[in-house]
Design goal:
By secondary structure, the protein is mainly beta. The protein is built from no helices and 19 strands. The protein has two domains: about 5-115, Immunoglobulin-like, CATH 2.60.40.10; about 140-225, Immunoglobulin-like (Sandwich). It has strands at about 10, 15, 25-30, 35-40, 50-55, 65, 80-85, 90-100, 105-110, 110-115, 140, 145-150, 150-155, 155-160, 170-175, 180-190, 195-200, 205-215, 215-225.
Length: about 230
């Protein structure tokens, strides 16, 4: 997973209502990559709330992109994220609505309008290296071969290696928060096929985890910290 700090950030903020929404929705893209990462904060509210992230190709007809059926006691410090992928659209509109347990709308975010990063921001070719005898290591990814549980983690996040063969190198683990900040960096010996990471000091929210061994990405996933 590319660190979010290295992404090309594009934020188009439009407000359909003349109000100052407490939710700030931003979009992060990488030029030439069809993936867009949406990030937003929740709000302070006396009761429990949940959210629905909506998307639209024209800003008129909206559909659900992501929703959480579980109501929680969120605050403005809670940061959430969702990753979407362009599939030919020239632009996509996004907005978040927060609901209480009676299905009343508590707040609505700004509308983020994201242009297709493949067609609108084509990636540039890398500059040629002076020493052509030095090869850059190639990172491969063939799917997740580690299992995460529980995905609604509280104190401990368990990682289980799902193959029989030996692990050929040091296990490098990186956990990033929804804003791309590295919050956990951990190394383990190749003999460890079961790992138990303490996450009790992390704030509630969505986190992204990556496991890298040698030049192979063995896990690229996310989990929710309660």
């Amino acid at each position: 997973m590319t660190k979010l700090s290295s992404l090309f950030i594009v934020v188009f903020l439009f407000s359909a209502m003349k109000t100052s929404a407490a939710i700030r929705l931003i979009a992060l893209i990488n030029a030439g990559n069809p993936t867009v990462t949406l990030q937003w904060n929740m709000v302070n509210y006396p009761g429990m709330t949940t959210y629905i992230l909506f998307k639209s190709s024209d800003g008129v007809a909206w559909e659900t992109a992501a929703a959480n059926p579980v109501f929680r006691k969120y605050t403005t410090s809670t940061k959430l994220a969702y990753r979407d992928v362009f599939s030919g659209e020239q632009k996509i509109f996004y907005r978040v609505k927060i609901y209480d347990t009676n299905k009343n709308i508590v707040d609505i975010s700004n509308t983020a309008v994201v242009a297709n990063p493949v067609t609108s921001y084509p990636s540039k070719k890398p500059l040629a290296k002076r020493n052509t005898n030095i090869d850059e290591p190639v990172t491969s990814y063939h799917g997740n071969i580690w299992q995460i549980f529980p995905n609604l983690a509280h104190d401990i996040l368990n990682l289980i290696y799902q193959r029989n063969e030996i692990i050929k190198g040091v296990i490098n683990i990186v956990i990033q928060d929804a804003l791309g900040k590295v919050v956990v960096r951990f190394r383990a010996a190749s003999t460890n096929k079961q790992l138990h990471l303490s996450v009790n000091k992390l704030h509630a929210g969505i986190y992204f985890i990556k496991i890298n061994v040698e030049n192979e990405i063995q896990l690229n996933d996310k989990f929710i910290k309660q």
